[in-house]
Design a protein that fits this description.
This protein is of the alpha/beta class. It folds into two domains: 219 residues, Glucose-6-phosphate isomerase like protein, domain 1 (Rossmann fold, 3-Layer(aba) Sandwich), CATH 3.40.50; 177 residues, Glucose-6-phosphate isomerase like protein, domain 1 (Rossmann fold, 3-Layer(aba) Sandwich), CATH 3.40.50. Helices cover 48% and strands 13% of the residues. A five-stranded mixed sheet has the order 1-10-9-7-8, with helices on both faces. The radius of gyration is 23 Å and the shape is globular. It starts with a strand and ends with a helix. The relative contact order is 0.16. The model has no long low-confidence stretch (mean pLDDT 97). The structure holds 5-phosphoarabinonic acid. 5-phosphoarabinonic acid binds next to loops.
């Protein structure tokens, strides 16, 4: 089977090849060894590192069996979670789904996966609940900590609605909780109510959890092959687990750090396929939360081309020269579509009549790469043979391992997220949560 590839040729006018290779063979190889030896910062959160290898078929069979129960009893399954308990499943499902799936009627045995708990939108929740009022639905509630406010609010509302619609006993059968083995409010609730549960291991952080039931259950409910997804990740694990001069995780991590040292502080993950929009969102969390700390870190952004060439293209081509791009380039589309010829040719498009739409897309990609490199935007390219479970599995593991290596090259702990707590503390103080009395006084004095 083919593998995803990394091409760095179009960064070499910004950083010399020998500099990248020195970093690749030096700091990146050391970082990978430190990860494998478990001797670096955050080494109690390395459960994701050999997860594809450690995942037994029986575990995947259990996930598929629970997914099949939900597929048989529901037309809609709401996956409730935020951050790492949301973005991985959303990214994979969107990459594999028909782009207009949401507008098609649900078919028995093949439910649609909806998402909630990823915001605090009153309108979003009201509209979701209205939509579900006459639907057969179920819930997967996902929270590693079991205490996150956004999913807790959404789950409280949806649980109440489901129980009112089908009764407590049937609701119990249609709710699956994914959370910590022992701790947290969700674990306690699941035990008391008798929900089917899956465990998120202590040593797997939220943003590294897509290949656990957190991502795998919603993906299986959506009808995708989680065994192939894990197989793709395992292929990448085997390929990249040891330092070598052909290790693409070392190469990507070394290149982006060399660019950062050369003043390129912003990385945009670019796709030329709208199905990858949420892959960019997943990647932003992975890299932003892992590296943005201790006043360091490349700022991860994501854009959809060619769409955003008509909005962000000017800045990227011509703005401050602190940016580089990493392009996700999908070689083969899922469908074929030829551009028709038109006798009147009023739009002047006959010069491309008979070509595949994707040929035009590929020329947009090549033309943009040349323009950006000429304009001072180095370009890294990751080639993906096609959008399938196997290649997405490869890509997920590739980015996870590269992220661990990159964080260690940068000198941060890639596996914590202390900065995420600050807004929560203020929000709880403002909402006068019990236990936050002192913080409430302090923040009220601040806002006057
Ligand atoms: O990466 C992380 O750990 C966080 O962003 C979490 O994924 C996010 O806050 C959700 O947390 P939880 O799953 O505990 O509800």
């Amino acid at each position: 089977m083919k593998k995803i590839q990394v091409n760095i040729n179009s960064v070499l006018s910004t950083v010399p090849e020998n500099e990248i290779h020195a970093l690749e063979a030096g700091a990146a190889a050391d970082a990978l060894k430190t990860l494998k030896d478990g001797t670096g910062l955050g080494n109690d959160f390395l459960g994701w590192l050999d997860l594809p290898e450690r995942t037994p078929m029986t575990h995947l069979d259990e996930i598929i069996s629970v997914a099949n129960d939900l597929r048989n009893s529901c037309d809609y399954v709401v996956s409730v979670g935020i951050g790492g308990s949301y973005l991985g499943a959303k990214a994979v499902i969107e990459a594999l789904n028909d782009s207009f799936d949401a507008y098609k009627p649900a078919v028995a045995g093949s439910p649609k996966v909806l998402f909630a708990g990823q915001n605090i939108g009153e309108d979003y929740l009201e509209e979701l609940q209205k939509f579900l009022a006459d639907k057969r639905f179920g819930i997967i509630v996902i929270s590693k900590s079991g205490t996150t406010t956004e999913p807790a609010i959404a789950f409280r509302l949806l649980k109440e609605q489901l129980e009112a619609q089908v009764g407590k006993a049937e609701a119990c059968k249609r709710i699956v909780a994914i959370t910590d083995a022992k701790r947290g409010a969700l674990r306690q609730l699941a035990t008391e109510e008798g929900y089917k549960t899956f465990v998120i291991d202590d040593n797997v952080g939220g943003r590294f959890s897509v290949l656990t039931p957190v991502g795998l259950l919603p993906i299986a409910v959506a009808g995708y092959d989680v065994k192939k997804l894990v197989k793709g990740a395992l292929d990448m694990q085997k390929e990249c687990e040891r330092p070598s001069d052909t290790n693409i995780c070392q190469l990507y991590a070394a290149t982006r750090n060399a660019l950062y040292r050369a003043g390129k502080k912003i990385e945009i993950l670019v796709n030329y396929n709208p199905k990858l929009h949420y892959f960019g969102e997943w990647w932003k969390q992975l890299y932003g939360e892992s590296e943005g700390k201790d006043k360091k870190g490349i700022f991860p952004a994501a854009v959809d081309f060619s769409t955003d060439l008509h909005s962000m293209g000017q800045w990227i081509q011509d703005g401050e020269r602190t940016i580089f791009e990493t392009v996700l380039s999908v070689e083969k589309t899922q469908h074929e579509k030829l551009i028709p010829s038109d006798e009147a040719n009023l739009d002047g498009l006959n010069y491309i009549a008979g070509k595949h739409v994707d040929e035009v897309n590929k020329m947009a990609e090549l033309g943009t790469r040349i323009a950006h490199v000429d304009g001072g935007v180095p370009n890294l390219r990751i080639t993906i043979p096609e959008l399938s479970e196997e290649y997405l599995g490869q890509l997920i593991y590739f980015f996870e391992l590269s992220c661990g290596i990159s964080g260690y090259i940068l000198g941060v702990n890639p596996f914590n997220q202390p900065g995420v707590e600050d807004y929560k503390r203020n929000m709880f103080a403002l909402l006068e949560k019990p236990g936050y009395e002192e913080a409430t006084k302090a923040i009220q004095a601040k806002i006057g």
